[in-house]
Write a structure and sequence with these properties.
Largest sheet: 6 strands, antiparallel
Distance between the termini: 123 Å
Structural class: alpha+beta
Shape: rod-shaped
CATH architecture of the largest domain: Up-down Bundle
Strand order of the largest sheet: 3-2-4-9-6-7
Radius of gyration: 46 Å
Number of helices: 15
């Protein structure tokens, strides 16, 4: 027990001492900040010395957060603000924070003694004031001198008294999101710029224009935030220069990008874009003259930038919205997206300006940032859609080129086969017929054992003759008798002929056709082509198989579908259809399908195959719809 007390009691005593030591800090942390909403102001005339202390007399006007009195009257170069602070001995390190004020040079006096001073050599008048206070157990009066070279000066919001560390955190954290947003957008533009080398030349111009718009927008957001000017005062002039350059680049970049979206259909908008680019270049030159030639050229720069630029940007927004709506009326989705982004950007900017002037120029513009982000998103979406459309177009072109090459190779092969068949088919058939006749004669005199051999030889000669007939049909389909065919009637005859064969293979044929379907062609060749296709479907059937034949009229054409639920074919087999000597059957030659496709081609028809393994095949045949009452001569291409 004694050992336990020896170990525990010293530790409890140490904890008690630590608690008593930290109690003031805990009490301090529990204090709420004090926000002062009222103060007094007195204008500083132009002839007043910048080193003078607080005025001993003069007229002080009452001001508060609702009416801050920040617009300088004529002949004034700044303002004195007088405020009474409550006792600050409740904090170990009290501090004063003014988050919103307009001014370039700041000085704080207590009892006519200078306690704080900051100066700027650049004209960015959005400022903040953070200073440490000496703990006091009684109210203290402070005078704040605010000098500027612009048209506004003064405190806009309340004065906050709190622990200096917490005020330091608040001093920076309120503007960090803007800084992160701007740098993120600028970093994204850098990444986009690095990726531009991998794009096609046609896409690169739009991409680079979007990179410029993105980079300038990010820099605008960064340079509009007061935080960089507070922590990097030596770079203030450079950041102001970057702000102006970004503004000069952003407006023409958006115009050129929009002109590409509109595909340069509006000549007046293209001319306006070029004129604005020229004007932005003039402003850029005026800005550099002002920057490097001194204050005496400020009037030239102010005329081009402050006097005209706002009206040009306003006209640009109106013109962009009008042209976007006009282009969107033509059904362009890109124009609709651009119109939405521009409209949000214009509305947010207009609302910012209304609130700014409504508040007597005390309102800090921030809504335009959200509108600019929405505009940037719309531009990115449009670019993504254009790249996607280019990819789809390239893919479609590749497929068309592949199909063209395939058809060209097939045409060359078929032309060779056609010439070969036409030249030798007759010469080969005659010796075959003579040989068959002699074989039949010899078979009548042969012994019974040899007759089977003669019969086999005769059958093979007949098969060779059929192949030669197919060659001749392919080379020159005999359509000497051409007429207007009643498609439903012809298909009904074919269905009656092929139904028994389908039943032998365990299948059934289902037939349906609309009335008054007519095509021009040869009835015999028409039957030959459809019998070949239906026979192939029957031979591909499994148990409980079916074949569906349907004929309808669509868009001035007779469309015939032949569907089955047979074995089906894969993509490689589909690509080989119509190639000589390719067949999915063991003893097939592939000439039947080749002849079928040739017959349909001569009848000015088209044929299309769709198939999947184990799911069946669908054949779509289209012919021009004919008028049965027309007496005009038949097309010459059918008289081959």
């Amino acid at each position: 027990m004694r050992v336990l007390l020896r170990r525990v009691l010293p530790r409890l005593f140490a904890l008690a001492i630590a608690g008593l030591t930290c109690f003031p800090q805990l009490a301090e942390a529990a204090l709420d900040p004090i926000v002062i909403q009222e103060w007094q102001v007195q204008w500083i005339p132009q002839e007043a010395s910048e080193n003078e202390g607080p005025p001993a007399d003069g007229t002080w006007q009452e001001a508060d957060a609702g009416h801050p009195l920040s617009a300088l009257p004529k002949g004034a170069k700044g303002v004195w603000a007088r405020v009474t602070l409550p006792p600050t001995d409740g904090w170990a390190r009290p501090g004063l924070l003014i988050e919103r004020l307009y001014g370039l040079d700041l000085a704080v006096y207590q009892e006519r003694r200078l306690v704080y001073e900051s100066r700027r050599d650049f004209e960015f008048d959005r400022n903040k004031l953070l200073m440490a206070l000496a703990p006091a157990n009684h109210p203290a009066e402070y005078e704040i001198r605010i000098l500027t070279s612009t048209e506004r000066a003064g405190i806009l919001g309340g004065l906050r008294i709190d622990d200096f560390d917490r005020l330091s955190h608040r001093y920076a954290s309120r503007d960090v999101p803007d800084l992160l947003l701007g740098t993120s957008i600028a970093f994204l533009a850098c990444i986009m710029l690095l990726c531009s080398g991998y794009l096609h030349r046609r896409q690169r111009s739009s991409w680079l224009t979007l990179c410029l718009a993105t980079m300038s927008l990010g820099m605008l957001i960064v340079c509009y935030s007061p935080l960089p000017y507070l922590y990097l005062p030596s770079g203030g002039r450079l950041m102001l220069l970057l702000f102006d350059l970004s503004l000069f680049v952003l407006a023409p970049a958006i115009n050129f990008y929009a002109d590409q979206v509109f595909e340069r259909q509006y000549a007046f908008f293209t001319r306006f874009s070029r004129l604005e680019a020229v004007y932005a270049a003039i402003c850029l030159v005026a800005r550099f003259i002002y920057e490097f030639a001194g204050e005496r050229n400020y009037g030239v720069y102010s005329f081009f930038f402050n006097g005209i630029m706002g009206y040009v940007i306003f006209a640009q927004l109106l013109l962009l919205i009008g042209v976007s709506v006009l282009h969107a009326g033509k059904g362009s989705r890109n124009a609709v997206i651009l119109s939405a982004g521009l409209l949000l950007f214009a509305l947010s900017g207009a609302l910012d300006l209304v609130l700014y002037y409504w508040s007597d120029k005390t309102y800090v513009l921030y809504l335009w940032k959200f509108g600019a982000i929405m505009l940037l998103l719309s531009l990115v979406v449009i670019l993504a859609r254009r790249i996607s459309a280019d990819y789809v177009m390239l893919l479609r072109y590749s497929k068309e080129l592949e199909l063209y090459n395939h058809n060209l190779q097939r045409t060359e092969k078929l032309e060779i086969i056609s010439d070969l068949a036409a030249s030798i088919a007759h010469e080969v058939r005659n010796p075959l017929q003579v040989t068959r006749g002699f074989l039949q004669l010899l078979a009548g005199r042969a012994d019974p054992k040899s007759k089977s051999y003669f019969e086999l030889a005769t059958n093979e000669l007949d098969r060779a003759s059929d192949i030669i007939t197919d060659f001749l049909t392919f080379a020159k389909p005999e359509m000497d008798t051409v007429s207007v065919l009643d498609v439903p009637a012809e298909l009904k005859k074919i269905e009656s002929m092929m139904a028994p064969l389908a039943a032998m293979h365990g299948g059934v044929i289902r037939f349906h056709a609309e009335d008054r379907l007519y095509v021009v062609g040869n009835a015999s060749k028409f039957k030959q082509a459809f019998i070949n296709m239906i026979k192939n479907s029957i031979e591909a059937l499994n148990k409980e198989g079916w074949i569906e034949i349907k004929a309808v009229a669509r868009d001035g054409q007779v469309v015939v579908w032949i569907r089955d639920n047979g074995e089906g074919m894969d993509e490689e087999q589909l690509a080989q259809l119509g190639v000589p000597y390719f067949s999915t059957k063991t003893k097939g030659t592939g000439l039947g399908m080749m002849v079928t496709m040739r017959i349909i081609e001569v009848m000015r028809g088209t044929i299309e195959f769709r198939s999947q393994k184990e799911k069946g095949t669908e054949i779509t045949i289209r012919f021009p719809l004919a008028d049965p009452d027309e007496t005009a001569p038949l097309p010459d291409e059918l008289h081959l």
